[in-house]
Design brief:
This protein is mostly helical. The chain has helices at about 15-25, 45-50, 50-65, 75-85, 90-105, 110-115, 125-140, 145-155, 160-180, 205-210. The protein folds into 2 domains: about 1-70, no CATH class; about 70-185, AhpD-like. The protein contains 10 helices and no strands.
């Protein structure tokens, strides 16, 4: 379950919430009967419904990147979104945009190689440039070497680069928020935890061994 309360259909007073629910869930109450057409629980939407104008702002972001006026190639855009999901550790964003890439006809080899794109030979030079830039945005907080940007500009116009930058950073945010709020597929137990020692383990012996070299 997500960390924040979900808004049931009966509670929904805002038109943007009811319109979104109608679009994604039909006439169901998505809290009582969760699930979307893509197989997600759908609780991202029911949590964001807590603040209707926040949900509306997000919906406008989705409409922005899908708008036919966009100049950026949808495949390049989705490579950035999918890589952002993987790099930020968001199962939700990564999984959803793998599906989007598949819907655009991208090969399984490329989709499977996104986590290790730097050593994969299935991407062309343009795709490698946008993946490198996506890593600069998501993993380096925007710190981008001149060589990466100069290479990017050999393939994309300034307008395309701005669109790609905005959309990739938008999905960086979505990935971070989904993990923090534990929505959708990011409702997972923390993977990094202490592993229990053997029953005969002695913390004192462990510390002593750490301080003094042992004879072989």
């Amino acid at each position: 379950m997500p960390r924040l309360r979900q808004v049931s259909r009966a509670e929904a007073q805002s038109e943007v919430v009811t319109r979104t629910y109608d679009l994604l869930f039909g006439d169901r109450d998505p809290v009582a009967e969760p699930g979307t057409a893509t197989g997600t629980p759908g609780d991202w939407w029911t949590v964001f419904a807590l603040v209707p104008d926040c949900l509306d702002h997000c919906n406008r972001g989705f409409a922005f990147y899908r708008n036919p006026r966009r100049k950026i190639d949808p495949v390049l855009r989705e490579l950035g979104q999918t890589r952002a999901g993987w790099a930020k550790g968001s199962q939700f964003v990564f999984s959803q945009h793998c599906k989007s890439l598949r819907g655009l006809g991208v090969s399984e080899a490329k989709i499977e190689a996104i986590p290790h794109w730097a050593v994969a030979d299935c991407f062309d030079a343009r795709e490698r440039a946008v993946l490198a830039y996506a890593d600069c945005l998501v993993l380096q907080d925007g710190r981008t070497p001149d060589a990466v940007f100069e290479t990017l500009k050999t393939f994309l116009s300034d307008e395309e680069i701005l669109e790609f930058t905005y959309i990739t950073c938008l999905y960086d945010m979505h990935a971070v928020m989904s993990r923090a709020l534990q929505t959708e597929f990011d409702d997972r137990a923390e993977a990094i935890v202490e592993v229990a020692p053997p029953p005969d383990f002695s913390a004192r012996d462990f510390l002593d061994t750490g301080r003094r070299p042992t004879a072989e």
